[in-house]
Every structure is written in C-alpha cells, then in structure tokens.
Amino acid sequence: MPLHQGEIPVDEDVVSSLVTQQCPQWGHLPLSRAGAGTDNTMYRLGADLLVRLPRTAEKAPSLRKEQRWLPRLAPRLGFRIPEPVHTGVPTGAFPLPWAVYRWIDGDEAGPQTVSDWAAFGADLAGVVRELHGTDLMGATRAGDLSWYRGGELRPCAEWISGALADCRTIVGTEIDVDTLERMWQAALARPEPSGPQVWLHGDLRPTNLLVRHGRLHAVIDFGGLSVGLPDAEHAPVWDLPPEARHAYRDAADVDDSTWLRARAWAIAVAASGISYYQHSYPAFVAECRARLQAILAE
After folding, report:
1. Helix 157-171 vs helix 256-277: angle between axes, to the nearest 10 degrees?
2. Can you give the residue range of the structural domain that contains 38?
3. pTM for the model
4. Out of 26, 109, 115, 134, which residue is the most buried by the measure of CB atoms under 10 Å away?
C-alpha cells in the first residue's frame, strides 16, 4: 500500500533495469529488497552496495543533499555514515533520481542487539555532540538544509494541535492525549532557544542507528540533514529504554528547558505520525504510540 499521494511504484524488475542500464559494472550482482522507510525504498545490491529510491518527487531532493554533503561530513566524524557511490538519473520506468551507497553491516538498535542500554545512550550522545560540533563548512539554514525540526516550536502549533485532536479520535482512551497536549503547551510557553545553529541529522530513530557487537556502530539515512537549533535532535531518545535515555541526557548535558522542548518535539512527531499514517503504515503508527506511552510513563 502506498504511503503518500503520488508515490512511484517500484519493484525488483525496475531496480534491476536501472542498475543494468546505468551501472553495467554491477548488473550481474544479485538484488534483494532491503526494507523501506517513509521516504525511500531500499534494495541490497550484491554484498557491498545498497540502492535507495525515493517514494515521491518531494523526497528526491534529500538524495541529492546526501550526495553533496555526506562526503564532506564523513572525514570529520568518528562514526560511520553512508557513503554515496553513484547518482542515478530518471528513466521512463522510474522518473526520479536514485542512488547507490556502500552497504554498512549492522543491525537496528533494539533489545536483541544492544547489550548495554546505558552505554548505548552515552554513545549516542557522543555522536550527537560530535555532529553538532562539526564545522558548517559554509552551510546555512536555507534551501534543502532548512527543515521544520531545526526551527522553533511555535510555527508548528496549529498543525500539531490538529494532529493531537486526530490522536484523540484514533487512540481513544488508550493514550492520555490531554496530558500530552499540556506538555506540548507548556513547552510552547517557554522561551525559544537562542543558541547557535548546528548540523542536525534530524531523525535519530532506532531504525537509523546500526549496532555491531552490542554497541552503536553507524548512523544512516541523512535525508533529514539540516542546519538549525538542536532541540528536536534529542526527541528520538523517547524511543529508547529509560536507562538509555537517562544516560544520554547525562552525557549530552541537556538542560531542563532544552529537555522539555525536546519532549515536545517527541510528542509532535509521534502525534503527526499517527495522524498521517493511521491507515497506511501500521508499524510506524505502533512506533509512534510506543513513544507517546514512554513519555507519559516518565
């Protein structure tokens, strides 16, 4: 089932034709589906490559952004990030740009892969500190490096109020939406941050954090790469167990006001996810519901 209006259908035959026509040196390699997110569909190509295809025309610029900035960021970071190796051009079969990256071994962060959640939280805080401390290299919060999650809360107030109203209808009494809305409103009442703008990954969910030997190994999917305020960057820690979240906050030294705004961003993203994907992406809705329940439990 498509997740978005205007989604471009893709299957193994389409991907095979793209690779054969534009990357004949890899045309003999086996191809297999490697998952899909809200923005891209992925296929593994041989043992060492990954093909990513945007779901809609609106998602395509993120690939170009990654092609431009990831090679410049990688040498400045101590953790592994995706390495683009080919930019594909549109065809009649797939009318959007697409891309090939080096495959990164690792497993999604979760209870079966992380051996010490407190250490994982501290590792994640180190990754965030390093990214936020990386020189902007002339980048500014403009164009494709400007995303709502790096901005202020107030411009999202009307939209998120609507998403919270949708949540009341969708989840009923299972989740205390009234308390979540009070948390959201309390963050809106606080002064907005005034610190420097920094590089942001934008979506540090467990699905974008790869683990090897029980520890954080790599960060993937920089489609939300932007320049902005860091508050929303902390929001996905409510997708992690409490011991990881507490270790993260301690290691990142997040002050109370920033933490409350980060929690508000966590509520906003989860509520809007439930509202938008309620009929099309049940696994993602379950993830959003779990985040809201974790916020209420804390």
Report:
1. 60
2. 12-102
3. 0.94
4. 109
